[in-house]
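Need the bound structure for manganese (II) ion, inputs here:
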Amino acid sequence: MASHAAARTADRVAGREVIVVQDTSELFLGGRRAKANGYGPVGKGGGVRGLLLHAALAIDAGNDALLGLVDAQVWNRDKGKVKARRSRATADKESQRWLSAAAKAGKALSAARSITMISDRESDIYEHFARRPANVEFIVRASWDRQIKLESGKSARLFAFGTRLPTVDRFSVTIPAAPGRKERTAQLVLRFSPVTLCRPHPSPGPGLPDTIELTLVDVREVSSGHGGKPIHWRLLTTHVLTNPDQARRIVDLYRKRWTIEEFFRTLKTAGFDIEEADIGDPHVMIKFVEATTVAAATIMQLVRSRDGMTQESVADAFEPDDQPVLEALSVQLEGATAKQKNPYPKGTLAFAAWVMTRLGGWTAYYGKPGPKIMRLGLEAFRRIKYGTTLKLQNV
Ligand SMILES: [Mn+2]
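Answer from helper R.:
Posting the output first, comments after.
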């Protein structure tokens, strides 16, 4: 299912500058009963059971349109019973998810003009940088205060090195509200420099290079009095940067990472409530999560295209034979007032999204329809489409 979706995404990226955001989310499915059903531990403490989902989404860097799913890996941690030994082996095995998503992106999206993968501190893995596909650039938030090699041949620590760099730019960004955090404007200072990372001791794997050349972009919040934790991102990128504007762009690209957080939120709450699915068999649940992940990506595509800002074509989320059904439904669903007319041109994804919101129960008068209405509309559309394929027969 996920590979079919990735193939569809591949068709859409030709010639585009593509951002791929990847991250892992834990799905919490319960306690004792989930354990008895064979679900492995998730979260801290080991009392809660569930599955893990690693997803990668492609975004157009120019207009933020969601192009689709690139990879989805779903797994259950329930292997073996020897805790101490298992945890290390599991962590090593689980870290491969970042490498395998990058490999898939490099292969599937090869028609793109450029590919930049963005990921958080969990993906600060030496092997991840070392095994990067040739056509994929990375922006990774640093987690480890690694040893680096200076031009003088001496070694230093990454974090202290970053702090000593000269400030090259100051700017402010709006930090959106999140659970436990109000929206605020943050004043940031920017530093950057090429860095040479040294391979950790002992080597985390065979055949890894002694050093890796990257660029460090250090961005730090200097505003205070907001009560939140000040931002400090140390971003490691494979992009070669020659001026402050390019370094600033790395920060802007990294901020697109929130798309994957929004995607997991859609999957867990507004759209699908996947953690409420009462499926006892982990194997069946894994299939269900995969299918839902594909559907949630389509929902997010529709939500993003809703205002007609991204100029996506209907072909980016629908099949060619959906088009006449969409047009017929649009006519049916338009109301008497100007507000209830479909304002978007036929053939655009925004046109189709409008149809989905009306099928999902939106009155076209108040507010902006979110993922939940979009999901209800898409489900209704699929049933209607199925209905159009039926032929009445004499029996
Ligand atoms: Mn993460």
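Comments: The mean pLDDT is 90. Residues 23-24, 120, 122 surround manganese (II) ion (CB under 6 Å).
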